[in-house]
Amino acid sequence: MKRILNYIDGNFCEPISGSWIDNIAPATGKVYSQIPDSGAADVENAYQAAAKAFPGWSTTSYTERSRIMSRLADLIGENLEALALAESIDNGKPVSLAKTVDIPRAESNIRFYATAIMHFSSEAHIMENAAVNYTNRKPIGVVGCISPWNLPLYLFTWKIAPALASGNCVVAKPSEVTPMTAFMLSELCTKAGLPKGVFNIVHGLGTKAGDAIISHPEIKAISFTGGTATGAYIASKAAPMFKKLSLELGGKNPNIIFDDCDFDRMLTTTVHSSFANQGQICLCGSRIFVQRGIYDRFKAAFVEKVSRMVPGHPQNPDTKFGALVSKPHMEKVLEYIELAKSEGGTVLCGGTKFDPADDELKGGYYVLPTVIEGLHYACRTNQEEIFGPVVTITPFDTDEEVLVMANSVKYGLSATVWTTDLNRAHKFSGQLETGIVWVNCWLVRDLRTPFGGVKASGVGREGGFEALHFFTEPQNVCIQLH
Ligand code: NAD
């Protein structure tokens, strides 16, 4: 059985405890590898390695850091096929999605920050005839990066790339549910020539290895992506230690469809924005609001398209809809479907577990894409994050009415708006309580823009140069002019 190893001080090492956690392939439900069950002692070793490497890395020239990171980006691109296959096996997502989205975007993350650091500058403020102020942006030191399972390598690199580019050394933990591509990345880091100790990966449970990272007194910043409850816990532990915190958390995103939209374009994208990665993208639109004039037409066309989406073997290149990430997650999603029914919802398609004909897939975690109507916008199904292939559809009459529904949740990650009325697009977008609004599109991403949510979807948003700011401490130097 393949064993994933920790990556500490440039070495591949077993957990100090000697214990291992089974890693299950969601497509089959079978154990296919093991990961270290790391704890505080492993995190301490990773911290010591990072602290030792910090003086060298933080004073390495921008050009040299950029060169090493660009080489790492190249290596991700050169290993696209192998990484995409590994991510599909680990996560249950269609290999085609991993190949076109996850891995290319992981490469882009590294390349973006490898080049951004070359253009990074800090501010100067001149007080006429009195003084000159300039801002020194210094790397923080050793920082912690913790990522979730849904877009494993993409979100892992989203955290570590700005941290490394700005001169920090990193102790990172990928999700224990999907550790494989982070392990492969550590091999690529060695090949790219990243100095020992600059980047360390400790695998293991959130409550053990993750907790040791966030509680470590010398790890001065935490960049976390994951669930809102975990984010709240991390904030409660890290804030009293005055750590810098970036928390990218859950969502319950509205998809608002006005009757003047380009119907065909909207329909194609809405199927995708609802069910890509089996609905397990934090930016998926799970609450679809449709203006009454086109509600029946939308409902018929949407349900017809969704009913034709049948889960398939994630590693088959033609599969568009794969397995959910784990058994507990599948059970949670199925419970929410039952809740929706008890709240008065009508299941228009899907609504059940799917049993594949292929014997190999019998133990896998498959749920049919599910569309539900007839629910009040304030019910639990419409307020709580399900994070699976379940969407609700709800008619509305006016802009004012749908705005109330869209903003009614505690979350504020993203929204999608479909309209051809430019004035409405601007006005309505500005009134939405979300960090991101996509108008007539979805998941289009420019890495220079801020990314992340408001309300319970997160704080300390990163994106473009903001992430380089997050991972540096500003110091003002004031020189009086005589
Ligand atoms: P999770 O919160 O369970 O776990 C995320 C990471 O935190 C994992 O690596 C886990 O091991 C670690 N962790 C768990 N408990 C911890 C603790 N006590 N201390 C330190 N680390 C701990 O989330 P998940 O189930 O892996 O991911 C799904 C969630 O992530 C969803 O809520 C989704 O919306 C959210 N998400 C948000 C974004 C975003 O950009 N806002 C992107 C992707 C996913």
Describe this structure in words.
The chain is α/β, with parallel strands linked by helices and 482 residues long. The protein folds into two domains: 272 residues, Aldehyde Dehydrogenase, Chain A, domain 1; 195 residues, Aldehyde Dehydrogenase, Chain A, domain 2 (3-Layer(aba) Sandwich), CATH 3.40.309. 39% of the residues lie in helices and 22% in strands. It contains 15 helices and 23 strands. The strands form six sheets. Strands 15-16-17-14-13-19-20 form a seven-stranded mixed beta sheet, with helices on both faces. Helix 8 links the parallel strand 11 and strand 12. Helix 1 packs across helix 7, helix 2 packs antiparallel against helix 4 and helix 9 packs across helix 10. The termini are far apart. The model has no long low-confidence stretch (mean pLDDT 97). The structure holds nicotinamide-adenine-dinucleotide.
Record keyword descriptors for this entry:
single chain, about 475 residues, alpha/beta, Aldehyde Dehydrogenase, Chain A, domain 1, Aldehyde Dehydrogenase, Chain A, domain 2, 2 domains, seven-stranded mixed β-sheet, six-stranded mixed β-sheet, 15 helices, 23 strands, about 20% strand, globular, binds nicotinamide-adenine-dinucleotide
